[in-house]
Amino acid sequence: MPDTFTASTNALREKLTSGSPVFGTFCSIPHVTSAEALGGAGFDFVLVDAQHGAPTFDTLVQLIPAIQLGGAPSLIRLPWNDPALAMRALDLGAAGVVVPLISTRQDAERAATACRYPPSGIRSFGQVRGLSYGSTAATNDEVLCIAMIETAEGLENADAIASTPGVDGIFIGPVDLALSMGLPVDFTLSDPRLKEAMTAILEAGQRHDCPVGMPLFGIGMASGAIEAGYRFMTAGGDGGYIRMGAMGDITKLREIADGENR
């Protein structure tokens, strides 16, 4: 296996355990050029969205090394809590996986054991270009398994999920959580009931020394999230950055054109 695919430690894990805020962004476009640009933008990680984004497992073998070439590690948001998908993502070089819809301790155990080699888990050995940390035991210690809590049932079981061995962090899915609670979609996250639920998950993570993260729907949310104690956050994504940049320029160009015509 080429030396470029080996590492002594998982740099993202080190950052998460340092206590400082960690920032990532979403990769939803399955193209190596945009993936490399995201990897080189300075984020602590790039979250490849194989659940709701356009990337598929056929494209991960190109996207993961492109992001690494930019200088950032990759996390893969899986489409489902499927051990085969978790193992595949790690074999292809991801630093860890984000597993959606974790609602019970059993769900969390299923995800965590898929990410670890025996005796800690059920991961099958057969790396294609996966990161190796010197031994299967060392790899078990370095890989990241992030559980998404995004249902009312997951909220009720937050302590059980956060305390599950092998769960290295919790990522709150606030939109699906709100829907599961019977609340409307609101990207401001301002509903008191949703805020209370997110705080309960955050406090469960803190009780079990399990870092908790959330998406930022706007940079203005960052200060409050950091102050509250969230340890990792995502900001934006490739599609949104392209759209916002293009819209910003065309708006200015129209204003200039209108001014010239007066």
TrEMBL record:
Gene3D superfamilies: Phosphoenolpyruvate-binding domains. Residues 26-241 form the HpcH/HpaI aldolase/citrate lyase domain. Keywords: Lyase, Metal-binding. InterPro entries: Aldolase/citrate-lyase_domain (IPR005000), HpcH-HpaI_aldolase (IPR050251), Pyrv/PenolPyrv_kinase-like_dom (IPR015813), Pyrv_kinase-like_dom_sf (IPR040442). GO terms for molecular function: lyase activity. Signal peptide: none annotated. Belongs to the HpcH/HpaI aldolase family. This is Aldolase/citrate lyase family protein.
